[in-house]
Amino acid sequence: MSDIVGPPLAEKTFAGLTGEGWVRIVAPAIIGLLALAAWEIAVRVNAVPTYILPGPILIAQTLVKDWSTLAVSLGITLQITFAALIAAAVLGLLIAILFAQSRLIELSLFPYAVILQVTPIVAIAPLIIIWVDDVRLVLLICAWIVAFFPILSNTTLGLNSADHNLLDLFRLYRATRWQVLWRLRLPSSMPYFLAGLRIAGGLALIGAIVAEFVAGTGGRASGLAYRILEAGYQLQIPRMFAALVLVSLTGIAIFLALSLVSHLLLRSWHESALKRDKS
Amino acid sequence: MSGSSAAISLEGVAKRYANGTLAVQRVDMAVAHGDFVSLLGPSGCGKSTLLRMIAGLIQPSGGAITVSGGAGPEALGFVFQEPTLMPWATALKNVRLPLDLLGVGRSEAEARAAEALASVGLKGFEASYPRALSGGMKMRVSIARGLVTRPRLLLMDEPFAALDEITRFRLNNDLLTLWEAQKFTVVFVTHSVFESVYLSRRVVVMGARPGRVVADLDVAEPYPRGEDYRTSAIYASHTRDVSHALHESMAA
Q1: With an 8 Å Cβ cutoff, are A172 and B82 in contact?
Q2: What letter would DSSP give residue A176?
Q3: Residue A224: φ, ψ to 5°
Q4: How far is A194 from chain B (nearest CA, A)?
Q5: What would the pLDDT profile of B46-94 be if each residue is shown by its tens digit?
Q6: Quick check: A172 contacting B, CB < 8 Å?
């Protein structure tokens, strides 16, 4: 890369963002717009039928036109995703704490968590459908299975990576198990837990979508995956794309929101949230 | 300072680790109340192991250790080689930790922690997080934490080894000031001959493989010791003696 052209990227800020901050936003946006324009032009010039590949403008129009249906589905997918994520965070954290209490418990149970993780969710979903009547609950369980593991494994690692000298210090002052957990192990594990949560957010969405593909929902209470399937059967390809766009945007929004949460919680102390000293 | 009865007495203390390594062979030693004793030796001589055994963090595999003057955890302070602070807590909360763990009430703990921070020259840094502090300041926080319970005995494990020389000299002087004011007993592990002669009234030289005491030298110079002492002929002569004992231990 040659010298960077344009205003100096150092400390100047504009509307609250540094030069690099703006480049970070503007550069990908330009690439995205160029790609969309090329797509639209290619579709029009070659007169590609809309049931093969609709142009971005048509997709945007469809998104607006079908919003009432899509919004309901988006709401359902979001509900399942967040319920699964919260369940994964709470249970992942609690089980990790259980693991941290005894090496024997961890060694006995961890392999089963791994088995749950490595078995593809599409293979487990049919079983869950047989066992559980409520379809929403099926989707929730599937999304939870996918989202749970990164939180469990990350938090377990975090709880076990407390500074050994600090552990000695706690021992010196005869800290109780609870004090060690609450004052030392849990804060030490926070960065790990939050990193796991960020991964789990995306996975919960994937789990919710994949499970719906397998389980199907039907009727009014359908999530975005069902809309994609339905549109596919009916060859309403623009609508399929519109639902797909919503899934992607949801994933991005979840990732950004969880990154923000992580940053806010760690900014006062953790290396990952710190700007390098420039003085 | 009574000086007659021992603050710590070690009788035939030995430590063999599970893997068979003999870290400490057999140490007989007594430390007088209010004394400042350095444990000096090359790495691997078991000086840190000995210190941790005195703290009760490691159990000796042989012999007996008696720490007089209350077995309660508040009677003991420990300062590690690294500052070992909780990065998510402010300086004040870090210093308050021992009091919190011992169940001291919040307002009293707060006041005593602030006092301890002020005593190491960090008044005004109560709300600072460790990452905002320099290496020397972090070590000061660590010392304040070690002293916040007003211990009778302060155990220090090469606390200044990672600091630059100027900071180390300053912390040496501040430590001596605190020691003279609060009259606790200090066992100070170091691998620096100069530091041991500057700080302590007695230097116990240890040899490696297996760890054992090879020499026990008095440095009976008066306190307060300042920069004049650091450049004096008597300081140089003590340094020579201690160095000599250290080299003999390593040659043997």
Answers
A1: no
A2: -
A3: -65, -35
A4: 15
A5: 899 999 999 989 999 988 888 886 667 888 999 999 999 999 999 999 9
A6: yes
Whether residue B84 and residue A163 make contact (CB cut-off 8 A), yes or no, is yes
Please state the pTM of the whole predicted model. Answer: 0.84
| A264–chain B Cβ distance below 8 A for any pair | no
* A71-85, B3-17, B203-217: range with highest mean pLDDT: A71-85
Task: Please give the structure tokens belonging to residue A196.
Answer: 């796991």
Asked if B88's CB is within 8 angstroms of A173's CB, the reply is no
Q: Is B16 helix (H, G, I), strand (E, B) or coil?
A: strand
As a dihedral over the C-alpha atoms of residue A72, residue A73, residue A77, residue A80, rounded to 10 degrees, the angle is 60
- Cβ of A183 within 8 Å of Cβ of B97? The answer is yes
CA distance B67 to A173: 16
Q: How far is CA B124 from its chain centroid?
A: 26
User: Which residue in the block uniquely carries the two structure tokens 């997918």?
Assistant: A77
Subunit contact A163:B73, Cβ cutoff 8 A? no
Q: In chain A, what's the furthest Cα-to-Cα distance?
A: 77
Of residues A15 and A170, more confidence is placed in A170
A15: left (phi over 0), alpha (psi -120 to 50) or beta: left
**Cross-strand bridge partners of residue B32:** B6
B89 vs A contacts (CB less than 8 Å): 187
d(CA B252, CA B240): 18
In this predicted model, what pLDDT tens digit does every residue of A237-273 receive, in sequence order? 999 999 999 999 999 999 999 999 999 988 888 877 6
